[in-house]
Amino acid sequence: MNKMEKALAELGQMDELAVQRSPVHGLNATAKLISTIVYILTVMSFDKYDQSGLVPMLL
Q1: What is the domain count for the chain?
Q2: What distance in Å separates the CA atoms of residue 6 and residue 4, rounded to the nearest whole number?
Q3: pLDDT at 48 exceeding the cut of 70
Q4: Which domain holds residue 10?
Q5: Lower Cβ count inside 10 Å, N or C end of the chain?
């Protein structure tokens, strides 16, 4: 499979995911954006080698 076929297949998969109905899809886009930014900032606030502190972030 060349790059173009792979890109088209991935685009088709994203299109299928976009039409699904789930609790996350029903949330306001602003709420999802804010929660993502807060999560990234929280993870970035930990020390580079503090892996045990990041374990709760897996949930």
Answers
A1: 1
A2: 5
A3: yes
A4: 3-58
A5: C
For residue 9, what are the CA distances in angstroms to 17, 18, 21, 52? 13, 14, 21, 38
Q: What is the dihedral of CA 27, 29, 32, 35, to 10 degrees?
A: -120
Helices (H) and strands (E) in the chain, counts: 4, 0
Q: Residue 1: what pLDDT?
A: 67
Summarised one tens digit per residue, pLDDT across range 21-34 is 888 888 899 999 99
DSSP per-residue letters across 35-58: HHHHHHHHHHTS-TT-HHHHGGGG
